[in-house]
Amino acid sequence: MADIYTVAQTYDNSGSEITASRVGANNHKGAAASNFSTRTLSFYKATYSGVETGYTASNSNFVKIIYGLQRVSQLAFVGTPASDNFVFAVETDTNNGAGVGNTSNDATLADAATASLGASVTVTALTASGASIA
Questions:
Q1: How far is the CA of 23 from the CAs of 29, 96, 128, in angstroms?
Q2: How far is the CA of 82 from the CAs of 73, 97, 116, in angstroms?
Q3: If you compute the radius of gyration of the chain from its CA atoms, what whole number of angstroms results?
Q4: Whole-angstrom Cα distance, residue 42 to residue 47?
Q5: pLDDT tens-digit series, residues 112-125
Q6: What is each CA distance from 132 to 5, 77, 126, 127, in whole angstroms?
Q7: Is 41 within 8 Å of 91 (Cβ atoms)?
Q8: Angle at the Cα of 120 (from 116 to 124), degrees rounded to 5?
Q9: Contact call for residues 99 and 93 (beta carbons, < 8 A)
Q10: Nearest alpha-carbon partner for 69 in 117, 113, 111
Q11: DSSP string, 69-132
Q12: 34 burial class (0-12, 13-18, 19+ CB within 10 angstroms)?
């Protein structure tokens, strides 16, 4: 595909060119983002020993943790639990008043999950990069 651009020219009052710059050189450049069809997302990992045990059952520990997380944020994604962990994503600006891009509310999420479950749950912020969320 050909590079599409325009040269923008600016003139002073006497008609002399004072600037000429290439416009459109930034066309078709990409940046990492998570808000194409939703709000910006923040990714986390919840850790609780045995969370994967019976996770599909009614009122399981997995479900109790999710209920707690929903009390302080809007969940956008919840992964399948395995090895005492599961990954989830929240809409960042719904994370108990957090601003866009703020991933510092780990304690708030952990407190809500812990209160809902009645046992200590650890929540850790993750970063989506390459082919993984870690």
A1: 13, 41, 31
A2: 23, 30, 20
A3: 23
A4: 17
A5: 899 999 999 999 99
A6: 35, 15, 10, 8
A7: yes
A8: 95
A9: yes
A10: 113
A11: HHHHS-EEEEPPPBTTEEEEEEEGGGSTTPPTT----HHHHHHHHHHHHTS--EEEEE-EETTE
A12: middle
- Which of 6 and 44 is assigned the larger pLDDT? 44
Q: Confirm if 96 and 90 have CB atoms less than 8 A apart.
A: no
Residues pairing with 21 in the sheet: 8
List domains and CATH numbers for the chain.
Answer: 41-133 (3.30.70)
Q: Which amino acid belongs to residue 115?
A: A
Task: Please tell me whether the overall predicted TM-score, pTM, comes out greater than 0.85 for this model.
Answer: no
E strand or H helix that includes residue 12: none
- How confident is the model over 32-88, as pLDDT tens digits? 666 667 788 889 999 999 999 999 999 999 999 999 999 888 899 999 999 999 999
Residue 102 confidence (pLDDT): 47
What does the alpha-carbon distance between residue 105 and residue 73 come to, in Å, rounded to a whole number? 10
